[in-house]
Specification:
This protein has about 425 residues and is of the alpha+beta class. It has two domains: about 140 residues, 2-Layer Sandwich (60s Ribosomal Protein L30, Chain: A); about 260 residues, 2-methylcitrate dehydratase PrpD, CATH 1.10.4100.10. About 55% of the residues lie in helices and about 10% in strands. The chain has 16 helices and eight strands. The strands form two sheets. The protein has a six-stranded mixed sheet. It has a two-stranded antiparallel sheet with strand order 1-8. The chain is globular. About 0% of the residues have low confidence.
Length: about 425
């Protein structure tokens, strides 16, 4: 086991994020461009995006505000963002900033266009002032600033896209066996600080989602029905309600930060909250809870390497594979049962489409957590989906590779279709107005 490698993976893949990562990434790129060209008044912003970003930034609320949209995210980033904070770029932003941004949009030329390339996550900002012209590009990851240009001169360029072979190699380097050994042998005081903070941040936003009327109120509604005795108040129901509540709050623009997993806040919430809730309700000690949450997050990261950073398929069910593994750990299962839980998850909710970041994501999160609990319960009873079923292979790593193939091969076609549907809806709405 390479302990330092795994600790580096945790540090790089489990990071603090404020708000939905798609509009936040737009704000980050715009803030980075403004940092390159800080002098003079901003005259224009040109925003070029892949369809995946367009899809996910259109409807979701910008953190701390009641606003949404690509242009608004870019303007808030350019005017008020702090690029040094990366995915916390909009910390402290509220609707008073939105009002100023709206005034700014009346005088600034701001255009949004789709970029036509083979990169699922591509984001480019060109910012012009009355003195300078800056250009920034993010690819493959929401905080992966790979290119910067000022007045035609390259400031830095590290825009080398990873190949599928490289991605598979990274995945293979971190085996389930290695994850299991690390989780059980790592020092609880020295090696899990990020995991401890993840539990604190993600449970806090889950509680916030139960207190207020965010989004669709999926979590709050389920909790209210439990309190009235209309839904059984058991581990599964509580885990589903709290996790969905965290997604409710985050998608509705809560200013609270979360700990993301593999570039997604909802995936961080999904990999953390249900496991922590289950540990508390089972009355288990803090060390077991921390190790189970660590297992969940690491397996989510491992599966996501096959799946891809961004996809036309919903990543919540990938994160829930981790959650299911963490639940197995809490129930006393071993590595064999963890692998069974992953297989059971792969045979259940794989293939759920991502139709953008929005309030409805809380529903998909709740469905994924429900599937995770079911998969774990079956696994600890020795029940595993057969390798003859669909995409399931005898070896769990091969199953994950099959999910990765589905994700990579269908994403462009499905994204195109979803964005076309969304644009058609918008055009019809504009005509009706």
């Amino acid at each position: 086991m390479n302990k330092e490698k795994i600790k580096n993976i945790i540090a790089n893949e489990i990071i603090v994020a404020l708000g939905c990562t798609d509009p936040v990434a737009i704000a980050y790129a715009a803030a980075a461009a403004r940092k390159l060209a800080p002098e003079g008044d901003i005259k224009s912003l040109t925003i070029k995006l892949s369809k995946s970003i367009i899809k996910s930034a259109a409807s979701v609320k910008i953190p701390g505000t009641s606003a949404n949209g690509v242009k608004m995210a870019a303007v808030l980033g350019a005017l008020f963002g702090n690029s040094d904070k990366k995915l916390e770029v909009l910390e402290g932003i509220d609707d008073s900033n939105v009002a100023l941004a709206r005034e700014f949009l009346n005088t600034c030329e701001c255009t949004v266009s789709e970029i036509d390339n083979d990169i699922l996550l591509y984001l480019e900002i060109i910012l012009k002032t009355d003195k300078d012209k800056a250009r920034t590009i993010l690819i493959d990851d929401y905080s992966n600033w790979v290119y910067a240009e000022l007045n035609g001169g390259i400031v830095f360029d590290k825009s080398v896209k990873r190949t599928e072979d490289e991605i598979e190699k990274i995945s293979a380097d971190l085996s389930l066996e290695e994850i299991w050994e690390f989780v059980n042998k790592a020092d609880i005081d020295k090696d899990f600080e990020i995991i401890k903070r993840s539990i604190m941040l993600n449970q806090s936003i889950a509680v916030e989602g139960l207190k207020h009327e965010y989004g669709l109120m999926v979590g709050k509604t389920l909790k209210n029905r439990m309190d009235k005795g209309k839904i059984i108040n058991d581990i599964s129901s509580c885990a589903i309600a709290l996790t969905a509540a965290g997604a409710d709050a985050r998608m509705a623009g809560s200013p609270m930060a979360v700990m993301s997993n593999s570039g997604s806040g909802n995936q961080g919430i999904t990999a953390t909250v249900p496991v922590a809730v289950a540990a508390d309700m089972l009355g288990l000690d803090e060390e077991i809870k921390i190790r189970a949450v660590a297992l969940s997050n690491l397996i989510a990261i491992h599966a996501k390497e096959y799946f891809g950073r961004i996809s036309a398929l919903c990543g919540a069910n990938i994160a829930a594979m981790g959650a299911s593994s963490g639940i197995v750990y809490l129930l006393g299962g071993g590595l064999k049962e963890v692998k069974s839980a992953i297989q059971n998850m792969a045979g259940n909710v794989t293939g759920m489409f991502c139709d953008g970041a929005k309030a409805g994501c809380a529903l998909k999160v709740s469905t994924s957590v429900q599937a995770a609990m079911q998969a774990a319960y079956l696994a600890v009873e020795g029940i595993e989906i057969a390798e003859s079923d669909g995409i399931i292979e005898r070896n769990v790593e091969d199953t994950l590779k099959n999910i990765g193939k589905m994700s990579s091969n269908c994403s462009f076609m499905i994204n195109n279709m979803i964005v076309d549907i969304m644009m058609h809806k918008q055009q019809n709405s504009n005509q009706e107005d």
